[in-house]
Design a protein that fits this description.
The complex is a heterodimer of chains A (247) and B (368). With 247 residues, chain A is of the alpha/beta class. Helix content of chain A is 38%, strand content 24%. Chain B has 368 residues and is mainly alpha-helical. The radius of gyration of chain B is 27 Å and the shape is flat. Classes of the chains: A alpha/beta (247), B mainly alpha (368).
Chain lengths: 247, 368
């Protein structure tokens, strides 16, 4: 078996002194694996993936991403962030820049690409998410679904090995969820490592290699989508699934 | 059962017109009884008062520089002759009379570059060089001491050139200071944060006059004897530090308003702290606080009149100086104040219009 690309070993995290948000997390993610993380709100799933690119820091345990251990060392954080792209629930596009400028900003300033190459790369990614004709617009002129696709394209412009999705469809109108999931499904077929916090169970069934269920800062259960949905092991999982699939 | 098909309703015109002059007048001036009464009272006041003002300011006013005619017209017409007589003293203060072409050209150069800096086509890397050249020219002309121009020390500088110089330099220096302090107040590093908080709170806790006094009289006491720093420079530093503290809080307000996700997105993309501030956070934060910042710029421009108390005679000071020293003209100070008020207004109103233009441009680019 090849070296996993992400490993959590007994990772713990607290917010303040008392809120124990991640508890003894052990998890290893293989290269190219597609993982869906689900669980009730406040269960620590967002915190879990935000630790992977150090938007949050853990206080105990070891977390290695692509062979680099995440510590306070700025160099290690920089190296990890080069390999990890992230898509947020609220898109977080830069509203004062055009779509194209949103996509070329990091390639030009972080990867030091010449403007022409950065724009070429940006247009490739915009074509990939089927939105190339909007390149000259400002983010707030686009619909939510379009904005989220731009956000995905922006992350892809840095050619990351790992993509993190933090509830990418939760802020979208129902009519727009599909266009974003389609882009994510297409991406999943390309061998990139994906970790996705979502409650889109159809997406999980179709795309994920593994589903992780979290509650109260712990990983309660992890399994293939088939086993997870059809034969959940713990009562907590059964209860959760009955609530989200019950209607 | 047949499926209902969706038939869109074609748009119709509004039954009541809401655009155009007629509806505007009705809505804004005669909308209801109180509004109509207020409108009529204001029109009445204008009809009663404006002709009197025109009569005093124009029809019965004396424009000739003759103090006898002015005396004769006292109380009936304005004495603009005081401006005709004293305008060079008011504009240039105690600067040697026959050399006053030098501050004139220096001021023109500075104002030209200021105006150019406001226009987008000039926002090029060489604008910095233009500023350096302009400042060299300004100080060269003002100081002199070469090419046959007599040396004029800073304590003889005065009037509009001094006002424009103090306002421009303190604005240009205070703004970047404010941005750095605002960022510092939000820093994770306790030492930097504390220094910035102390600076802002200390400066905001004292009036500008006391800062100017300290800069001008106290500061030399702390210096080793023999060293002397030009009073103009000391006052400039005082105004800069003062307005920097106020603007830092305005900028900080803008920074607070930026959603946390913007910083997170920049972090995720691997931008460094300074790259993120420069490319993502500050452009949005500063766009939001344009009105507040411009408010401060205008305040700085007018606050320069306080330097009179440390014997620098800028526009307001030199007006007083010009009239106080002459018993014939001293009674006509009001007209003198009107004159400099017009000059202040010209500058401040331009700044205010420019700020509006910037706001429009920023919101147009986003087209929300």
């Amino acid at each position: 078996m090849t070296e996993p690309i992400i490993t959590f070993e007994k990772v713990n995290k607290w917010y303040g002194n008392n809120f124990h948000v991640l508890r003894d997390i052990d998890l290893s993610v293989a290269k190219g694996e597609r993982i869906v993380v689900c669980g009730p709100s406040g269960s620590g799933k967002s915190t879990l993936i935000r630790c992977i690119n150090r938007l949050e820091e853990h206080q105990q345990g070891t977390l290695k991403v692509d062979g680099v251990e995440l510590t306070d060392d700025v160099k290690s954080i920089e190296r990890v962030r080069k390999e990890v792209g992230m898509v947020f629930q609220q898109f977080n596009l830069f509203p004062h820049l055009t779509v194209l400028e949103n996509l070329t900003l990091a390639p030009m300033w972080v990867s030091k690409l010449p403007k022409k190459d950065a724009e070429e790369r940006a247009m490739q990614q915009l074509t990939r998410v089927k939105i190339a004709e909007q390149a000259g617009k400002y983010p707030l002129q686009l619909s939510g679904g379009q904005q989220q696709r731009v956000a995905i394209a922006r992350a892809l412009c840095l050619t990351p090995k790992i993509m993190l999705f933090d509830e990418p469809t939760s802020a979208l109108d129902p009519e727009m969820i599909k266009e974003v999931l389609d882009v994510m499904t297409e991406l999943a077929g390309q061998g990139i490592t994906m970790i996705c916090v979502t409650h889109e169970m159809g997406f999980a069934k179709a795309v994920a290699d593994r589903v992780i269920f979290m509650d109260q800062g712990q990983i309660v259960e992890e399994n293939t989508p088939h086993e997870f949905f059809d034969h959940p092991k713990s009562d907590r999982t059964k209860d959760f699934l009955s609530k989200i699939l019950g209607h | 059962m047949n499926a209902a098909s969706f038939t869109p309703i074609a748009p119709r015109e509004a039954p009541v017109r809401t655009e155009g002059a007629g509806p505007w007048l009705k809505r804004n001036l005669f909308g209801n009884v109180p509004s109509t009464v207020a409108t009529l009272i204001l029109i009445g006041l204008a009809v009663w008062w404006l002709p009197q003002l025109a009569s005093w300011g124009l029809v019965k006013a004396v424009f000739a520089p003759s103090s006898e005619e002015c005396q004769a017209a006292r109380g009936i017409g304005a004495c603009w002759g005081v401006v005709t007589e004293k305008y060079r003293l008011i504009m240039f203060g105690r600067y040697p009379f026959e050399e006053q072409w030098r501050p004139l050209f220096a001021t023109l150069a500075m104002v030209t570059v200021l105006v150019a800096s406001c226009v987008r086509v000039f926002w090029k890397p060489w604008l910095g060089l233009l500023w350096a050249a302009m400042l060299a020219l300004f100080f060269g002309l003002m100081f002199g001491g070469f090419a046959g121009m007599a040396y004029v020390p800073t304590d003889r500088w005065g009037g509009l050139p001094l006002t424009v110089l103090l306002a421009t330099l303190s604005i240009v220096l205070a703004f970047p200071l404010a941005v750095v302090v605002a960022l510092g107040r939000r820093s994770n590093m306790p030492a930097i944060k504390t220094i910035c908080v102390l600076y802002v709170e200390l400066i905001r806790g004292v009036p500008l006059i006391s800062v100017l006094f300290m800069a001008s009289f106290m500061f030399p006491l702390f210096m080793p004897p023999g060293t002397s720093i030009d009073v103009l420079l000391r006052v400039l530093v005082g105004i800069t530090l003062f307005s920097g503290a106020y603007m830092a809080e305005i900028v900080r307000g803008g920074l607070q308003a930026i959603p946390k996700g913007q910083q997170e997105a920049a972090d995720t993309l691997g931008l460094s702290y300074w790259q993120a501030q420069r490319k993502v956070i500050l452009p949005q934060a500063l766009a939001m606080v344009v009105p507040g910042i411009m408010n401060n710029f205008i305040a700085i421009f007018k606050d320069t009149s306080l330097v009179t108390i440390v014997s620098l005679y800028e526009l307001t000071g030199s007006m007083g100086l010009a009239l106080d020293s002459d018993t014939d003209w001293r009674p006509f100070k009001i007209e003198g104040y009107f004159f400099i008020a017009a000059i202040y207004f010209l500058f401040c109103f331009s700044m205010s219009r420019y700020s509006l233009w910037i706001e429009k441009r920023l919101s147009a680019s986003k087209n929300r």
